[in-house]
Specification:
Distance between the termini of chain C: 35 Å
Number of helices of chain A: 13
CATH architecture of chain A: Orthogonal Bundle
Order of helices and strands of chain A: HHHHHHEEHHHHHHH
Number of strands of chain A: 2
CATH class of chain A: Mainly Alpha
Oligomer: heterotrimer
Strand content of chain A: under 5%
Structural class of chain A: mainly alpha
CATH superfamily of the largest domain in chain C: MetI-like
Largest sheet of chain C: 2 strands, antiparallel
Strand order of the largest sheet of chain A: 1-2
Number of domains of chain C: 2
Distance between the termini of chain A: 36 Å
Strand content of chain C: under 5%
Chain lengths: 314, 481, 296
């Protein structure tokens, strides 16, 4: 059936890709599983000739560690809050954009702008907007040079300056800033996908609905949302996958300490946990954590798929 | 959808295969590890004159490499076949990271700047040469100028080292010598002498005096931050040492800092912070020296930082070349001025194991050359602001002249060196073991947390401190486990 | 805010009453969209506004919405402080080289999957797609060791080679290649044109829009990459722009605070190239992104 010479040629075309894949993708998968199964594996100790027992110790070690649970909690909170908020906002904006004519292109371009930004760089802008320049935050002797633009705008409504990200700030304030930033950052992609989906919906459905005199609310819930459901499922699933890998937006705002001074690592995430373990030379722990992250993403994706299978209309 | 699910299935199969591979991986060989026996036997001929290249990693800036580059030719007059290649890798952490990755490929340098916890880390791979056999060696080596030297250290050379510094090489729990002291520093108190003199303030020698002084400065300048303490970790560790309350132990239960005495002083420092008396590097967001030297905005009148950083604690000259204020330097405050304690910092050097023992012996000859040379130690100290590790440097004419010219402006490094030399009996070091650097990081974080956290929901200061200590201990134990 | 109004405009016969309702609804709709647009734009505005202020003005208790005195000098200082010239050069070099190599690999592989027949093609392709599910961190752990063993630390190689293969791009291009009618290929075969010649002469020009999308996304990737470069290339000769930017601004000894205006100026400088690319190549970016789901 296959011509041997042509087969050989096909593999030649694939060769560069396969070599790189073998070294930087396949071997890492095998090696990660290997390291995760070697009790307390450390590359440095391995270089010194130490042997390691095969066990599930690393997994138990990581799962029973309270800081890992903090990372897991932060990741979950960010996912559970930002994905629905950004998806609903994006849906509203997309539907509205689709129904207007003047200014449509301009607005569409504006809404896409956050996509072409560097998440560390803009994170620094958000940090500057929420930052209180001063010392002794939250003590009776607080010195405030400037409370920042956000606090000043809230001040117009009579709200006292809130310590968002400085030393002594609360976890809730920190998370609020992160949620605002992540939603802001996630909107453009979602709007783009949903708008693309809306433009693909056949006008006949709406015309038919109009002839029947269907109320607009019903048009939205019975026509727009169902026909858009594959796109909605797509942005939700990719949103969750992206949410579980959240890391750089936190670095952008809080720096590599992953939290305000005095509460460093408070906002650490799963990905941050993996890198910490890696930087401490604990490759066994890092591997186990990476596999756990993979398993969580897999499970969440499967649940998402299962739900959308029941709900999504193709 | 079907495709997606089959994809997932394929991933699962891939993983199963991978687990299969893992199970088949053959175990590596036996583990030599660090032992209680010296790990290097000196070759019978000592250094045989063979050509070797020695790689030396350090953190020296260009002003210091200038000094080093002047002394390498002098060394090569004695040993022309030993080529010294040195490289500034970055900061101390960069040196550590670079070497620990190089160890896994076996390409580590021959000599490196090190801190004790770096050595504890390298010892995981058992690659740091113990120096005991080299130090004790009585083999006579002939040099290129036909003079000879004993390979080891003579009794006089040993005695010339400041004892505390020399003994730092043996703090790894097995009484073997792993490092040689290279140059040292400690923490000192920098103060705005102009401001102090103008307001009739006296330099504090105890923490009680410090507290009263901060309160007085706050009255004089309510928007100031009277004191900046650069290193949270050093502060915690030094307080443990001053109280004798225990920080870490090289043997047995490593992390002994979770005790009531320590909690009490942390609580006291929190009160000072809450009163607006002080800040630290992490809380302030930068070296507190930047606050100390600033002449606009928020001011600070005292700064506790490394004696080697004296030039950073001096304000910038104005257009006429004058300093806006004069800096004074004093030892840090104490709990008991009769039994002073100040941390000993600064780099030591260690020598790495190599297949060719001649490389190790040649490395030792170079290390010995640098650490026992009064002239080098004097010049290096003058250029760096570090203090020499040899007692006899103090008698060196050039160094003496340097120290005598000390002042709080143009010769601030000399002033800092002078203060260090006057308190040589106060220096302490804390034990090094695998996990000691985590303990250091954790107590620093603990202090930040206890100072800055705003109490909420019925939480008391003691609750906060208890849980911060517990967290730090947990973290240390997790890291060591 | 009502959400059932989107097809208002299409309604043909409207009574006066409905007309009034329609105007109100459309107005509300614009209010919402413009309000959201302002929120989206605000950080950009604030970044530019701050970057032009003096530090004294920046620290005013009540911030000014436009600088009293515009200080372009912040940009020059930021460029120097953060060593942006060097960072730009590094990033552009890594971006260009990795994009070119990546395109070659992607084109060859996509062609093999789209046009050539060989045993196990579909199984292999499914396996490749499967690897896209795995979080990148899992690869990083081992790759960190691998590049170390290869002696690649602090080189350009380490920033380029490990990420040359993107299954997603191969997938994207394969789909595009498949849309090209088979007849063209068969005709070329009859004429005795070699596969490679056909690929270069026919398929690449036809798939150009997709290739441009891939190029832009890959360049954006280099511009935004942070985690991997931070791990493996920390010396100044190989620092990429994002890593350099995050670590460049600490407190300025002259003023006792971070020089925020300068920091914001650096952020503007770093963001500007992306905006320029976006303005000129908007179509390709949006097209590429709408098919992707990954950033960069």
């Amino acid at each position: 059936m296959y011509d041997t010479k042509r087969q050989w040629k096909a593999w030649l075309y694939l060769l560069p890709m396969l070599v790189l894949l073998a070294v930087f993708t396949i071997w890492p998968i095998i090696n990660t599983v290997r390291m995760s199964m070697l009790e307390k594996y450390q590359a440095l100790a391995a270089a010194g000739g130490k042997t390691f027992e095969v066990s599930f110790y690393n997994f138990k070690d990581v799962l029973s560690y309270n800081k890992f649970l903090t990372c897991l909690k932060n990741t979950m909170i960010l996912c559970v809050v930002t994905v629905p908020v950004s998806s609903i906002l994006a849906l509203l904006i997309a539907v509205f954009l689709n129904s207007i004519r003047p200014l449509k292109r301009v607005l569409q371009t504006i809404f896409f702008l956050p996509y072409v930004t560097n998440s560390i760089a803009i994170g620094m802008v958000f940090a500057a907007m929420f930052n209180i320049v001063g010392s002794f935050h939250g003590t009776p002797n607080q010195i405030i040079e400037t409370a920042g633009i956000i606090n000043n705008m809230l001040g117009v409504f009579g709200i006292e300056p809130i310590n968002w990200i400085n030393p002594g700030s609360t976890y809730g304030a920190n998370i609020t800033v992160l949620v605002i930033y992540i939603v802001w950052n996630a909107l453009p992609f979602k709007i783009l996908i949903l708008l693309g989906g809306l433009q693909g919906i056949n006008k006949q459905y709406y015309d038919a609905a109009k002839v029947d005199g269907t109320p607009r609310k019903r048009i939205f819930t019975r026509i727009t949302v169902p026909l858009l459901s594959p796109m909605i499922a797509y942005v939700v699933i990719t949103g969750f996958i992206g949410g579980f890998k959240e890391y750089t937006s936190i670095v952008g705002i809080f720096g590599e300490d992953m939290g305000p001074a005095g509460a460093s690592k408070r906002l650490n995430t799963m990905v941050g946990f993996i890198y910490d373990a890696l930087e401490n030379g604990r490759q066994g722990r890092a591997s186990a954590a990476a596999l756990i992250l993979f398993a969580i993403i897999l499970v969440v994706t499967l649940i998402n798929l299962y739900v959308s299978k029941k709900r999504v209309h193709y | 959808m079907k495709k997606f699910l089959s994809t997932i299935l394929a991933v699962l199969m891939l993983l199963t295969t991978a687990i299969g591979f893992a199970a088949c991986t053959p175990g590596p060989g036996p583990n030599p590890g660090p032992s209680a026996e010296p790990n290097f036997d000196v070759p019978a001929e000592g250094y045989d004159g063979s050509e070797v290249t020695i790689k030396f990693y350090h953190t020296m800036g260009s002003n210091l490499t200038d000094v080093l580059n002047r002394y390498i030719p002098l060394f090569n007059e004695l040993y022309p076949n030993i080529t010294i290649v040195h490289e500034q890798v970055g900061g101390y952490d960069d040196v550590r990271d670079q070497i620990s990755t190089e160890i896994t490929e076996g390409t580590q340098p021959n000599i490196a700047y090190c801190y004790p916890d770096h050595v504890a880390m390298y010892n995981l791979a058992g690659v740091v040469t113990t120096l005991d056999n080299l130090i004790d060696s009585e083999i006579v080596v002939t040099r290129a100028d036909d003079t000879t030297e004993v390979l080891g250290l003579t009794a006089a050379q040993k005695a010339d080292f400041i004892e505390g510094y020399y003994n730092e090489g043996k703090q790894f729990g097995d009484n073997l010598m792993y490092t040689m002291p290279f140059s040292k520093s400690t923490e000192v108190l920098y103060y705005n002498k102009t401001f102090f003199d103008a307001n009739g303030l006296t330099v504090p020698t105890t923490w009680d005096e410090m507290e009263a002084l901060c309160a007085a400065i706050k009255l004089l300048d309510p928007t100031s931050i009277p004191l900046g303490y650069d290193s949270e970790a050093n502060w915690f560790i030094t307080m443990c040492e001053q109280y004798g309350s225990g920080y870490t132990s090289a043997t047995g239960d490593h992390f002994i800092f979770d005790n009531d005495t320590n909690k009490a002083f942390v609580k006291e420092i929190r009160e000072w912070y809450q009163a607006g008396y002080l800040t630290t590097q992490e809380i302030y967001g930068a070296y507190t020296s930047t606050l100390f030297v600033s002449t606009e905005g928020t001011k600070s009148y005292m700064s506790i930082g490394s004696s080697a950083g004296a030039t950073h604690q001096r304000p910038a000259q104005d257009t006429n070349g004058n300093y806006p204020f004069e800096v004074g330097i004093a030892p840090i405050p104490q709990l008991n001025p009769d039994d002073p304690k100040a941390i000993s910092q600064g780099p030591s050097v260690c020598i790495f194991q190599k297949e060719n023992p001649q490389e190790v012996v040649a490395s030792w000859l170079f290390v010995k050359f640098l650490t026992t040379s009064v002239e080098f130690q004097a010049e290096f100290s003058m250029a760096s602001g570090y203090v020499p590790v040899l007692k006899s440097v103090a008698d060196n004419a050039i160094y003496k002249a340097f120290v005598d010219a000390a002042n709080g402006g143009s010769h601030i490094s000399a002033l800092s060196a002078k203060v260090c030399l006057e308190q040589q009996e106060s220096y302490y070091v804390s034990p090094a073991f695998n996990g000691s650097s985590t303990a250091r990081d954790q107590v620093g974080l603990l202090l930040q947390t206890c100072l800055t956290t705003v109490l909420s929901g019925g939480q008391t200061v003691d609750d906060l401190i208890d849980s911060a200590f517990q967290d730090a201990v947990d973290e240390c134990e997790y890291s060591a486990g | 805010m009502k959400i059932d109004t989107m097809h208002e405009l299409n309604v043909q016969d409207v009574s006066n009453k409905q007309k009034v309702g329609k105007i109100i609804v459309t107005t509300l709709l614009y209010v919402f969209l413009i309000f959201m647009a302002i929120i989206v734009l605000f950080p950009f505005y604030w970044m530019i506004n701050s970057s032009l202020k003096s530090i004294g003005e920046y620290l005013l208790p009540v911030p000014t919405f436009w600088p009293h005195r515009i200080l372009f000098v912040n940009y020059i200082d930021a460029f120097k402080t953060a060593n942006l010239g060097r960072l730009f050069l590094n990033t552009v070099y890594v971006g260009v080289v990795s994009t070119l190599l990546s395109l070659v690999i992607t084109i060859l592989s996509a062609f093999a999957f789209a046009r050539l027949e060989f045993k196990g093609k579909n199984v292999l392709f499914a396996c490749l797609l499967a690897t896209m599910m795995i979080p990148g961190e899992l690869f990083t752990i081992t790759n960190y060791g691998t590049v170390n063993d290869l002696g690649w630390m602090n080189t350009y190689t380490v920033l380029i080679v490990p990420f040359l293969v993107s299954i997603f791009y191969i997938y994207l291009l394969r789909q595009n290649f498949k849309q090209i009618p088979n007849e063209l290929y068969l005709a070329a075969k009859v004429d005795g044109t070699s596969d490679l010649k056909y690929l270069i002469k026919v398929m690449i020009p036809l798939a150009l829009p997709t290739l441009i999308s891939i190029t832009i996304l890959k360049m954006m990737g280099a511009w935004n990459s942070y985690i991997w470069p931070r791990l493996v290339a920390r010396d100044i000769d190989h620092t990429l722009i994002t890593v350099g930017l995050r670590n460049a601004f600490t407190i300025d000894p002259a003023i006792g605070y971070v020089n925020y205006p300068q920091q914001m100026a650096a952020v503007v400088i770093v963001s500007a190239p992306l905006f320029l690319v976006f303005i000129f190549l908007r179509k390709y970016i949006m097209k590429g992104v709408s098919r992707s789901g990954i950033k960069g």
